[in-house]
Queue: 2 jobs
Job 1
Amino acid sequence: MSRSAHPAGPRHADVLPEGHYAAPPTDLNALDSKVWAQTVTRDADGVVIVGGIDVKTLAEQHGTPAYILDEADFRARARAWRTAFGHDADVFYAGKAFLSRAVVRWLDEEGLNLDVCSGGELATALSAGMPAERIAFHGNNKSGDEIERAVAAGVGRIVLDSFQEIVRVAHIAQSLGKRQRVQIRVTVGVEAHTHEFIATAHEDQKFGIPLAGGQAAEAVRRALQLDGLELIGIHSHIGSQIFDMSGFEVAAHRVVGLLKDVRDEHGVELPEIDLGGGLGIAYTSDDDPREPHEIAKALTEIVTRECDAAKLRTPRISVEPGRAIVGPTAFTLYEVGTIKPLDGLRTYVSVDGGMSDNIRTALYDAEYSVALVSRTSEAEPMLARVVGKHCESGDIVVKDAFLPGDLAPGDLIAVPATGAYCRSMASNYNHVLRPPVVAVNDGESRVIVRRETEEDLLRLDVG
Ligand SMILES: *Cc1c(COP(=O)(O)O)cnc(C)c1O
């Protein structure tokens, strides 16, 4: 399991980690509102409070590690997206970022739709009462059973991802006596990540049907012929953690090109275009995400301009933000355990969780920040690496961070912006129990996903 060749391995003291941690921040007690949930602040004693509750109380009541989710912040972000896109567009929250029944109810109440990409996510959505017609079903390898359940439930759309699936969904819909609304997911030859996009050769991936070589046009041809399908539009999702809108510009241009070809060939103007999700959030103070209203304005302008040029009626736009809604709303609360200063290198700060509750650092080299939250400190900054308790040297939560030099076992530290892709990608590695998700609001805390127990583990292990 050792990953000694990992580039994040020990370095010499005079070679500080490259990037924004090269100098310690001026005030380690400050909480940058860009990366913390909206209601986070410090009380008069310096203890961090969120949703009106301090983290010491939360740790006592719910234990650590725990994901602490600011419900008011979640609702505000969901509402901001909804409002920004208005009534002529749809916002589908991407459930894979984090899904629970409470979240489904909040989304329903705030007027958002929901993307699911497995039978499990579909079951969660339906059991929390999300109307099926507001659910979109995604995936590159949906099983026959999943498709049947989705069609039978009456989901608003299934996003078709392959030629085989076009036939399969049509067949299942017909056998159930239904006509299923579908979109076709295309790959536009653009992949966007963070501050750049690459406009070559990104048909080379498992999702979607390439526009290149006329494959997507052929998929449309086939879908239009099948009685079990009602083709309502084209779908494109270009990447993740995107700040730069130019990737969407290229994608919209190419998708509208297909809509135009479809109109010319079939005399059909498809009524919808889905531009996917992938909008970035601030994980550290260096990230500057755009506001939903700026994104809505930019995307609407791009699509309208392209459609005007192609003399097409502007289709109804939909978007699918996941991370941008839930990511900033939660932080992971950990208790500090072993502290190991390595002379001339850095100090390893071990917490009571790790890669099982946040795999993103190990998986994507993701950057996070961290703060001491159970008190303030005036001690000198110390170069730290926050690591977990797993039997794996790549078990890193925050690669490079400054924490106060007087940090001690029992202190509480928190890693902000862990609302997306942390609980949803959590594992039981080393039989470590997955943390709860605790929603806080107006001075009250409520467990929305409970902590796993050893009984849960043993229940699955049937001997
Ligand atoms: C993952 C995904 C999203 C959400 O991505 P975020 O980066 O969380 O916004 C939206 N649509 C599709 C099809 C996806 O696969």
Note: The pocket of pyridoxal-5'-phosphate is lined by residues 94, 96-97, 115, 138, 237, 240, 276-279, 320-324, 420 (CB under 6 Å).
Job 2
Amino acid sequence: MSSATLTIDLSAIVANWQALDKLTTCETAATIKADAYGLGVAKVGPALADAGARIFFVALASEGVALRGALGPGPGIYVFSGHMAGDAEMIRSADLTPMINSVDQLLCHVEALPGHPFGLQLDSGMNRLGMEPAEWAALRDIALAQRPKLIMSHLACADEPNHLMNQHQLKTFVEMTQGVDVKRSLAATGGILLGKDYHFDLTRPGVGLYGGLPFIDAVPVVTLDVPVIQIRDVLPGESVGYANSFVAKNPMRVATVAAGYADGLIRAMGAKATFTHEGRKAPVIGRVSMDLITLDVSNLPQEPERMQLLGLHQSVDTVAGFAGTIGYEILTSLGARYDRVYLT
Ligand SMILES: *Cc1c(COP(=O)(O)O)cnc(C)c1O
């Protein structure tokens, strides 16, 4: 087998969902946008539904359609982007609940699908999606008369517990929803960890389910094992890879493994990255190519058949750190060429 193996532990995703659920007394939904953060919504959705998740969040109506296909009727599927032009048929046929972001979206929704359930998204300070306080003040009575299923907002800095923005957004959200008799949601993974003031009626964790920070107690979910294609000796003065960017100072053993930036192992991780073999580190040397990466395996006691990038020894956040990015980007970049194995 020449392709790398991405192993996705569905029971670990379920365990993380249950652990996040235990941190609150309210309902816990699951955010499975972007194909469940790259891990496969057709597998992740049903696993979480079997574990008791009743509400799911996706980014786009088309993602909601795919999820409905996997889940069947019953669970709520809420769409963060709301009701966009052209979405009505998808929203109706897949029974999706758009999270309405503006007056225009509300008009579009009630015109195209009168009586169809919806929620409302408020902007409490992030300035990305949702109605701003003034817009909301003008629309509030009309919108509430249509009986929304949920009112939500999103925190910009929840992964930094001491950031003043958290309290500011909490206060704004409370003010904007004062006296409203509708279920409320503010917290994603980071918000759950901020404590019960942030929990309201429903939380919507994403990254923590998949083993990423800021949920420090997450169980690891993904393992990525990459086969070694070839091992060679490199002499002092010889170069490795494109642009001769690595030149050996000492004699070394170099392994070439079968994955590269086309598989989401982004080029920017370059010289800071390591792979592991039975817990021992092997540094990446030279440039990351499209399909190949070269590693210094001189310190390994035997010739490896496979090298591991993600797993017990290196988390998604460790690998993100190699590239100066976040675990979310590593997960959602994981490529289509991997042989995907699901553990249940
Ligand atoms: C992505 C997203 C979430 C989930 O966030 P995590 O940090 O992955 O837990 C929740 N709510 C909204 C609005 C989002 O965009």
Note: Residues 31, 33, 80, 154, 188-190, 204-208 surround pyridoxal-5'-phosphate (CB under 6 Å).
